[in-house]
Amino acid sequence: MNLKMLAAAAALVSCVPFTAQAQDDARGGISFRGEARIGYETPTVSGDGDVYKIGSAVSYGGELGVDFDAGDFSVGPYVNYEFSSVELCDGGVCLSEKGNLSAGGRVGFAVGKGSQLFLKVGYASIEMEGSVPGFSASESKSGVQGAIGATFDVGPHVYAMVEASYADYGKFYDINLQRRQVAAGVGFRF
């Protein structure tokens, strides 16, 4: 490699927004993130003014996202998948949630050094399974989801997060289906 090529490569690298300084400042760059999450959720059905819980239980999963940082705010897409342990059984007939997929956009606002408040809105898809002894069937239903939460830096590339979300899937066999969840987790920016 000659000296001109080495100088050109150094100049190119210095223009890339993925520098350590840009990541440490969380300003003016692009950061990829991954989260491990655990939550508590309650899928519900409603109709005629009444709301009935299918169950309440632990959910767990992860989220991947990209943040385009612009000073005191950031925007970017995310995709999330969480498994669920919600199950309601009566006399051998069971209804359970298998998992929830969501994808959409996230906007974050700096609220102090190393902390951010964020809002999310997007698409959500829930998979429900019904079973009787010797037979089971599952079906998915899609809808919209919104969330509000916060992140708190605990290291140069590590953050803790909390979030509350609500999803509305519309009519599922002529009844309204929703999902409410609170979650916490740890994320990594790279």
Describe the biggest sheet?
8 strands, antiparallel, barrel
Contiguous helical run count:
2
| Strand runs, count | 10
Derived from helix and strand composition plus strand pairing, the structural class reads mainly beta
Question: Alpha-carbon distance between the termini?
Answer: 29 Å
Q: Work out the helicity level.
A: 10-25%
Can you give the mean pLDDT? 87
Q: Which of globular, elongated, flat, extended, rod-shaped describes the shape? A: elongated
Describe the strand arrangement of the main beta sheet, using strand numbers. 1-3-4-6-7-8-9-10
The low-pLDDT segments are 1-27
Return Rg in Å: 21 Å
Q: Order of SSEs, N→C?
A: HHEEEEEEEEEE
Query: Hey, roughly how much beta strand do the residues contain?
Result: over 45%
Give your account of this protein's structure.
With 190 residues, the chain is mainly beta. It has helices at 3-15, 20-25; strands at residues 30-47, 50-53, 57-70, 73-84, 87-90, 93-112, 115-132, 135-153, 158-172, 175-189. A hairpin with a 2-residue loop joins strand 7 (115-132) and strand 8 (135-153). Mean pLDDT is 87; it is low at 1-27. The chain is elongated and about 55 Å long. Strands 1-3-4-6-7-8-9-10 form an 8-stranded antiparallel barrel.
